[in-house]
Amino acid sequence: MPEGGIQAPPMLDAAVAFGRVLRGAGLRVGTDRLVEFARAIEEMDPSRRDDVYWAGRITLTSRPEDIEVYDRAFELFWETGGGAKPKPRPKIRLSVPQPDRSVMPPKKTVEKNESGEEAVRLRYSPVEVLRHKDFALYSPEEFAELQRLLADLRLSGALRKSRRLEPATRGRHDPRRTLRGAMRTGGEAVRHRFRKARVQPRRVVLLCDVSGSMAPYSRALLRFLHASVVAGGRLEAFSIGTRLTRITRELTTRDPDRALRQTAGAVQDISGGTRLGDAIKEFVDRWGQRGMARGAVVVIFSDGWDRGDVSVLAEQMQRLGRLAYRIVWVNPLKAAPGYKPLAGGMAAALPHVDVFLSGHNFESLEELARAVAAATERGG
Amino acid sequence: MNNASGERRGALPSGVSHFRELGVRLREHDYLADEGLSTAIFLSLKLGRPLFLEGEAGVGKTEVAKVLSRILETPLIRLQCYEGIDVYQAVYEWDYARQLLHIRAAEAFGGEDRERVERDLYDREFLVSRPLLQALEHRGAMPPVLLIDEVDRSDDEFEAFLLEILSDFAVTIPELGTIMAERPPVAILTSNRTREVHDALKRRCLYHYIEHPSFEREVEIVRLRVPDAEERLARQVAAATEKMRTMDLYKPPGVAETLDWTEALVALGARELDEQLVEATLGSVLKYREDQQRAANAGLAALVSGVGGAGRDA
After folding, report:
1. Which of A27, A62, A70, A247 would you mutate first to test chain B, the one with the most B CBs within 10 A?
2. How far apart are CA B226 and CA B224, in angstroms?
3. Deepest of A202, A212, B35, B184, by most Cβ within 10 A of its Cβ?
4. Assign residue A32 a region: left if phi > 0, alpha if psi is -120 to 50, beta otherwise?
5. Distances in Å between the alpha carbon of A335 and those of A273, A341, B158?
6. Which of the two residues, B115 and A363, has the higher pLDDT score?
7. What pLDDT shows up at residue B112?
8. What does the pLDDT read at residue A99?
9. Looking at residue A113, what is its pLDDT?
């Protein structure tokens, strides 16, 4: 419902100018919030820095993460009297090869230009080849192809009973609906109604290592994740490197390449080396313990190289294990011949892991999807 | 029906026209709010917008609603959210048992006017109102304070429904029609961030993130809320909890824990903190075994040391 007659508050121009600065800094502020901001300033003293600061913070931010961005933008705006352009966000690019359509071998052209063996070889089901090919060996075109394959694959957590009840043909007696039905038949409960707990997929939380050595694999995995988020799954995603960054929001953009670029913008520590134990601790402290990890399927995607203290990792994995429904560890090194998870972080973490997978090619991503959806009890 | 939107403004307590005056009022009712929180509450009352509060457990989010209801001298209506909460538990439900009795009674006493019996069945008197409807139906000089606690625990469906209620402050009951608030309730929403609440819902609200208080403020809070605690003890407790918050604990103590701890100490007749007392009462401030271990490893004596009553004046 609109609030009374709409008239432009006097402070609106200043608010809009500030809104531009905020948007430049990466904060989502809609017009409705700017109007609210303008109203708020009127109730305060617009010449007092703190008043304007709080009026803005209360009306324009909506998450703790926003506050840091807001502070920077406010500083800039206030110091320069509102005329300054915001500093552009540092642009860090995740080196996602852009699918270049001109390079893609369209099947028809191949058929026309080439003849005999060559054409046949190219037409031999690329899907089968890609399924087993290591992501590290993918060409840009193959990544584009992977995108299509992933469209059919979803990460969806194992089912659990929700506390929300729904009508059912049998189950618990449902007095509300039974009596309601009885109203229509003169107070006689002719038909009894029942209800039962609805089942719902568990939340899936992904912690994705974005350090240098993992790049080709995390790229494939992030695409996988993006496809699942867009499909509406209950997913949360974090990148881990030198610090923990929540990237769920960035992954909700529909265009996968744009989403990946945004993710790259959000992750400041690509290829910076990993402190696994610290990152997992930060996750459990800030998100996991409060509820995000409770009863969830947690997928950790990492090669297990921890630059930090390995005992921290062991302790944090144990904590995580107590909260999560199951923990799936995906380590592309597992596919390497002769690899044994004996060293450092991987050895420390493994006792707390329920399922250990490789995730180096498409086939193993299918395996991951199955492991995440599996409702079997622990001990996989 | 009243024009709710026209009445939006002005749920401020009488005599308050500036956020500082509100801060004073809050203080008179034993709640110490810093400038940010006072401003947030002030604007929420003034602009008639719901206030969305986030922060660590125990920083006093729920307390804001309670103190507001005391200041405004209006009832506090609380809706505790949980997974699976639905309209029947949050808004209204027909009292089917009584409706049945009504039919039986009508039959027994031979009231043969069937249509009328059926019409009466859906009369207001057979409706059980739950917190949200209570808040909308309230009539009085001041709108009630509606506390929607731990919104993050409910699910998407319920969130979408809340969004509707908080936009229109009205609810439609098919059998009765639309019930609209005379004046929008003072709505306070809290979240512990176990999951991200939908943007659309937050966009309806003003937002404030409550931090742990500064040392001086926490001392003041302790003095205000546990008047039996002596100044020296209050300062020592506040200093010790402040240290604990830098200890990298799983659950750093909030103000609620500071107060619990002080009360425990006062109950033991403590006038000053020492190592033995800390050991004996640690469970009232640190509630994870690992956290107690960590504090013990760091040395409980360290929590007490360096905090003279007079030594910490800022």
Report:
1. A62
2. 6
3. B184
4. alpha
5. 22, 11, 45
6. A363
7. 61
8. 40
9. 40
Parent domain of A324 = 204-373
Average pLDDT, integer, range A220-245: 79
> What's the pLDDT score for residue B191?
93
* Range with the poorest average pLDDT among A183-192, A220-229, A344-353, B134-143: A183-192
Mind telling me how many Å the CA of A246 is from chain B's nearest CA? Answer: 11
- Report the number of distinct structural domains present in chain A: 3
Q: Domain ranges in chain B?
A: 19-83+135-210, 92-129, 215-304
- Give B-chain residues touching A322 at CB under 8 angstroms: none
**What is the rounded CA–CA span in Å between residue B141 and residue A272?**
61
Gyration radius from chain B CA atoms: 24
Cβ-nearest to B39 among A58, A183, A187: A58
Give A249-290 pLDDT, tens digit per residue: 777 776 666 766 776 666 655 555 678 888 899 999 888 887
Could you give the CA distance from residue A302 to residue A264 in angstroms, rounded to a whole number? 17
A2, A62, A183 member nearest B207 (Cβ): A62
Q: Are residues A223 and A326 in the same domain?
A: yes
Determine the 3-state secondary structure of A161 from DSSP: strand
pLDDT, position A380: 37
- CATH number of the structural domain B19-83+135-210: 3.40.50.300
Tell me whether residues B43 and A32 touch, CB distance under 8 A: no
Least confident of A251-265, A347-361, B232-246: A251-265
Contact A246, A283 (CB under 8 A): no
Q: Which residues of A touch B8 (CB under 8 A)?
A: 3-4
Looking at the fold, whether A220 and A367 belong to one and the same domain comes out as yes
CATH of the domain at A321: 3.40.50.410
Using alpha carbons, select from B285, B239, B233 the residue that is nearest to residue B259: B285
